[in-house]
Amino acid sequence: MKRRRFLKAMVAAPAAPVLFAQQPSAPSTPVSETPVPATSSASLVGDLPKLESTVADVAAEMRPDFFNAQQFAALRKLSDLLMPSLKGQPGALDARAPEFLDFLIESSLPDRQQLYRAGLDALNALARKRFDKSFAELEASQAEALLAPLRQPWTYELPADPLARFLRAAKQDVRTAAVNSREWSSSNASSGRRGGGAGQYWYPIE
């Protein structure tokens, strides 16, 4: 029975091309004889708008991911006081140390995150209490008056005062971030000085 069906199929197969050949073909659409003006690639390029490019850091200011606006402003002020630009060396702000610390503290353990947030909030609270301004708005002399804990003798034991403990940690972190930055490395290379990571530095991923 299967063999008979197979033979019938073989016999019917050649008829398929004949049936397709008998189908009427669709009328072809006449091609317009109107000539299309040729456009050179040079004219196409000339019509494209010219876009001006700029460096990403110049286009907009960095927005912190971990600190809020007031905390980050206080961190920038503190970083500038702890490590200003001196004798041609970039300061903490030139080296973008606050931006790096925002990334670093966000990736740190909760205890260190709390230390920074509480410390920056304490600086803002003290500034408002004594000068009716935020810490970032203070004059240098006013801000330095609030950094009195840093002038205490250094000891191996951490300070009992939370603000003093924060200021000690921030002082070390700001310097470490600055001297390991691209700006610090470039400054040393151009001036012939050594140090600052020997050409290796942190760089933020945009």
Description:
Helices cover 53% and strands 0% of the residues. By secondary structure, it is mainly alpha-helical. The chain has helices at 2-12, 15-22, 41-47, 56-59, 69-82, 97-106, 110-131, 140-145, 162-179, 182-191.
Task: Please name the defining characteristics of this protein.
disordered C terminus, 10 helices, mainly alpha
Can you give me a brief rundown of this structure?
With 206 residues, the protein is mainly α. Helices cover 53% and strands 0% of the residues.
Shape: globular
Through-space gap between termini: 74 Å
Helix/strand structural class: mainly alpha
Q: What's the overall average pLDDT, rounded?
A: 75
Number of strands: 0
- Written as H for each helix and E for each strand, in order along the chain, the element string is HHHHHHHHHH
User: Can you count the helices?
Assistant: 10
- Percent range for β-strand residues: under 5%
Radius of gyration: 36 Å
Low-confidence stretches: 6-23, 41-45, 53-60, 195-206
Largest sheet geometry:
none
Helix amount: 40-55%
